[in-house]
Amino acid sequence: MDAKVRAEGVADGRLRYTLGKERRICLRRDKDVLFREGVRMFAFPYRSVVYAHGGTEAGCRLLAIVPKRVCRLAVTRNTQRRHIRELFRVESAALNAHCKRQGVVLDVAVIVVSDEEVRLERAQRSMRKILSHAEQEVKRRAQDA
To answer: What pTM, to 2 d.p., does this model score?
Structure first.
């Protein structure tokens, strides 16, 4: 598969509805840097840490965290994680393109802080708030560079 096709999320004329490996934070080193140097914010039911930096693969990357002390059942944790990934994928398309134009890697950690069931509209508002905060970090990073 061509790299350009993968980046746009289109394969064989079909749109892919997944958040690929290149858009997830996997390395422990990257996680450590994110939590050590990132900017924190709170948007119920999520807490987030955002870190914009230069790198070889520009774009947005996500780390979804659902602690066991918040959601006791594994099925609930997996569902919450799936919801976070989907909200991030849908809401961050424009931000991802902006990061690629600026040549900035944006790492976002989203942490669930409430075990109560949240309506989709509320979760979308929270994710938009987190991503608008992240966009400000990208602009700040672009001005500093």
So the answer is: 0.86
Give the structural domain span for 85: 19-144
| C-alpha span between 46 and 30 (Å, rounded) | 20
How many domains is the chain partitioned into structurally?
1
- Any domain includes 6: no
40: Cβ contacts below 8 Å, ≥ 6 apart: 47, 48, 49, 50
The answer to whether residues 64 and 81 touch, using CB atoms and an 8 Å cutoff, is yes
Q: Which run of H or of E encompasses 59?
A: strand 59-65
Q: Residue 14: inside a domain, yes or no?
A: no
> pLDDT for 99-116, tens place per residue?
999 899 999 999 999 988
- Output the pLDDT for position 11: 55
Whether residue 41 is contained in a domain is answered as yes
Instruction: Give long-range contacts, CB 8 A cutoff, 24+ apart: 135-139.
Output: 135/95, 135/98, 137/39, 137/50, 137/51, 137/52, 137/106, 138/52, 138/95, 138/98, 138/99, 138/102, 138/104, 138/106
Torsion angle, CA of 93/45/110/124, rounded to 10 degrees? -10
CATH code for the domain in which residue 50 is found: 3.30.230.10
